[in-house]
Amino acid sequence: MWLEVLLRELIDVAQAERVSRPARILCIALISLVFLMGIASLFLLVFVIEGQSLLRRGVFLMVGVSILAYYLQFLYTVVGRRKGGKKL
Fold first, then answer.
1. Three-class SS state of 16
2. In the chain, which ranges are E strands?
3. Is 11 exposed, middle or buried (0-12, 13-18, 19+ CB in 10 A)?
4. What do you get for the CA distance between the two ends of the chain, in Å?
5. CA separation for the pair 16, 27 (Å, rounded)
6. CA-CA distance, 43 to 79, in Å (whole number)?
7. How many domains does the chain have?
8. Residue range of the domain that includes 50
9. Distance from C-alpha of 32 to C-alpha of 71, rounded to nearest angstrom
10. 45 in any annotated domain
């Protein structure tokens, strides 16, 4: 539960305009590290571990794809704001 609050606050700091550039870069790096570890572990559960049912693999795959989509949306928002794009 505390990890969710920590990630939400890091995402808010990374998207804020009043935060210094080094702090934003650090927040983006930490968020990316957590997201990429989660995505990699879910895809490893789907494709590497044997003996799981097809339903369970499908659930892990859907969760991994949804996390990947949320991470790409976050990156698009952060990069789009830096290049002068609109906030989603």
1. coil
2. none
3. middle
4. 26
5. 11
6. 26
7. 1
8. 2-82
9. 8
10. yes
